[in-house]
Amino acid sequence: MNIPMPPGVSFRKEVLQGNYAYIFRHFELGDLGRIVIQGLPNGHCYLSCEVSGDPDDPMTAVRKKIFKPLSEQVANTMESLLGNGSLGGAIPPSSPRSTTEIVESKLISCERCGRSAALLIFADDAKTPGDFEDYARKMFHKYKELDVPTWIIGPPVGELAESRTPTQVMKVWPSRDDIVTTTADEFNAELDALLDKHCSCV
């Protein structure tokens, strides 16, 4: 299928339970969504368009803004290739799909009150901004439920020098920040300062 992509967007084709799926990805936003093409007994096709992300995640709306016109473009292209009326139906991209993927993380508790104080999500294979966004998307339900400061920790950058090794980090909760490069020493100092302010000694 020859579909011109917007800047930063690519797609790949996979077989999903016997059907073809087109997965669309943005360099900075990660997976945008997928279109599953299912053949019907009458020879028509049915398109299922699914946005990646939790409906409550503000980033889902950002992904949908890019993905929706792409899904419409795919539907129009298929109509032109297969003939008018060839689509038996198409679901607009309004029902984000969930994920059950297990992601390594560490919940840090306050030593004084015992309550949860911070969440670290380890993205050992993250190389691009889109990879970090994938981890943020997959773990949104968790850090929203915990409602504690949350960071995604990427792999070390360059040569290992223990606590001075540069590492990419992105804070995603309660506010979303850009990816920064820091060291274990610098990040631990920031985390210690946060824990010191978590609660007062009674």
Please tally the helical runs, counting DSSP H or I stretches of 4 or more residues: 4
Distance N terminus to C terminus? Answer: 66 Å
Write down the CATH topology of the largest domain. Rossmann fold
- Low-pLDDT sequence parts: none
The class by helix and strand makeup works out as alpha+beta
- The percent range for helix content is 25-40%
Write the layout of secondary structure elements.
Layout: E1 9-16, E2 19-26, E3 30-39, E4 45-51, H1 58-82, E5 87-91, E6 105-109, E7 116-122, H2 129-138, H3 140-146, E8 150-156, E9 166-173, E10 180-183, H4 184-196
Parallel strand pairs: 4-5, 7-8
Antiparallel strand pairs: 1-2, 2-3, 3-4, 6-7, 8-9, 9-10
